[in-house]
Amino acid sequence: MAVDRRKFFTIAGLSTLVGLMGKEVLTVAAQSESKYLAAEKVLTAHRWAMTVDLTKCKQGDGCEKECIQACHDTHNVPAIENLKHEVKWIWTEPYEKAFPSQENEFNKEELIHKEVLVFCNHCDNPPCVRVCPTQATWKQEDGIVMMDWHRCIGCRYCIAACPYGSRSFNWVEPAARSEDGQILPDQPFLKKVNSAFPTRTRGVVEKCTFCDARLAKGLQPACVEACKQGALAFGDLDDPNSEIRALLKDRFSIRRKPGLGTQPQIYYLV
Amino acid sequence: MLENALQGGKEYWAWLFFLLCFIAIGFFCYLMQLSQGLGITGMSRDVTWGFYIAQFTFLVGVAASAVMVVLPYYLHNYKAFGKITILGEFLAISSVTMCLLFIIVDLGQPMRSINIILYPSPRSILFWDMVVLNGYLLLNVIISRVTLSAERKSVPPPKWIKPVIYLSIPWAVSIHTVTAFIYCGLGARPFWLTAILAPRFLASAFAAGPALLILLCLILRKITHFDPGKDPIQSLAKIVTYAMAANLFFVLMEVFTAFYSDMPEHTIHFRYLFVGIEGYNALVPWMWASEIIGVIALVLLLNPKTRIDESILAVACMGVFISLWVDKGLAMVVAGFVPSPLGAVTEYSPTVPELLISLGIYAIGMLLITTLYKIALTVRKEI
Prior knowledge:
The structure holds 2 protein chains of 2 kinds.
Chain A: H1 5-30, E1 48-53, H2 66-74, E2 90-94, H3 95-98, H4 109-112, E3 115-119, H5 127-131, E4 137-139, E5 145-147, H6 157-161, E6 168-169, E7 205-206, H7 212-215, H8 222-226, E8 232-236, H9 243-250, E9 253-254, E10 266-269
Parallel strand pairs in A: 1-10
Antiparallel strand pairs in A: 1-8, 2-3, 4-5, 6-7, 9-10
Chain B: H1 10-36, H2 51-64, H3 67-75, H4 85-106, H5 115-118, H6 125-152, H7 161-184, H8 197-223, H9 230-261, H10 264-274, H11 284-302, H12 304-308, H13 310-337, H14 352-379
Helix pairs in contact in B: 1-14, 2-4, 2-7, 2-8, 2-13, 3-7, 4-6, 4-14, 6-7, 7-8, 8-9, 8-13, 9-11, 11-13
């Protein structure tokens, strides 16, 4: 068979493509399955959920916001002053911003001026999971919406899809590193580094994980543990005897933007 | 055939060199973005998609518009488009290439982009967009290559290419429909949450794309021996007219629905675009300019006397293109993010490196168009 220049280029181009794709497939196939052992005291549930008691939560009223500090310290969340590049897992919003369409100007004084604690709602029907093109974010069997920071390609579709503004993108490098890849302490965005939790890299999306890593060690989420007012409760909604179920049975609760059908798993007791 | 792109006069090489300078500048800025992160762009926590994604959206439309010459020529046997069909297909190839590049430069971790293929996620519209865009690129490469090489040998194209061409027609519609679905399926963003987004995208695409094609034909007629003739230009002009009218109609339907229902979360984005909110009004002059230019262009197109005059037609086509570029390549994406779901009003404007990277990608697109058109016209000995 005579091969002219045109055919040669076609064949060369196609085989390069196949070769490149083949290499990727082989790399993936070569990753053997590894086995992990669960810790003994691991906390498990079918549907993790949290309640925020707005009558006990003193945000904006003398509270030192230990919950926010604890969360951001635990998870190496960089403190970036430029609001455009801010990364946050847990923060406060004025009541009317957190609950648009559930506000009215004659509400109780405490509610109107309330700074409401907001974080990822770990929706039962999460739109962020639906849109992610690489399955870098997904809903676990226990209801937690998780993130894989090593798979995320940084397309930010999940941020567009989240109705609660709960996701942050790393616009800049969150942690400075030395040349051999070690995280440098005492740098602009991370004053101290918790070595028990990974730091992120620029170009990926991150958010609250309901302290999945702490649950695996039998610990409550960092914010729940840190709150001095006892305003936060965390538990299994599927367990009829849980504290959280008792609270929800007893008290009137609201959720953020319920009309969107996302089924948020953070309940605000009013 | 490809060697034809490497033979040309002084002006040809000067133009290519000019484009290569912009590509080099864009590439340099992209290296800067790679090392410092997307923080060097104007995007922010609240406005997470900006100029890149808007250009991508606009150019998907330009790419899809090739169907406006392919369909009459192959499906209705409209012979007048015979000379310009290949130009439409090459325009599609260049536009899709730019689209893919704009997606890549928007990624925070571009080196991981292969993850879209390694972990296919059929529930994600972005996954399907990747499928239809690459498929459309492949279809147009195959079709233009096969038909042009048949033309070079003065033989009819092989029979098997016909079904491939027919497939490319609904495929063109699909690329812009799927691109609209990226936006209009999000409950979090009321501005995009409208069933008319896909039809509106198609209408504006079928106006902007053929308008650009008319301008390209007129330029080619000036600088080469290529002459598409009066008829195809006039037919394209009618397509632009109908599509632009449909687009304007769709926009007014959106405005009616938002303002008659008077639901704040729907009206506020329109308010931001046309009057500004809380004193933030960066896009207001752009939007009014876009609407006024669009209406003037439509009037010039609707009136047969001005449409037939090719110099006025050229002005009208430029008007259509600019008006729709502002609407889709600037405002549509950004307005979805302002205000944010938490009611925050953060304005967005692209930074210099962001614009230079975009300019570099446009230069790549123009380089592709130049060389591909050079090949097509050399094969037809019209240069």
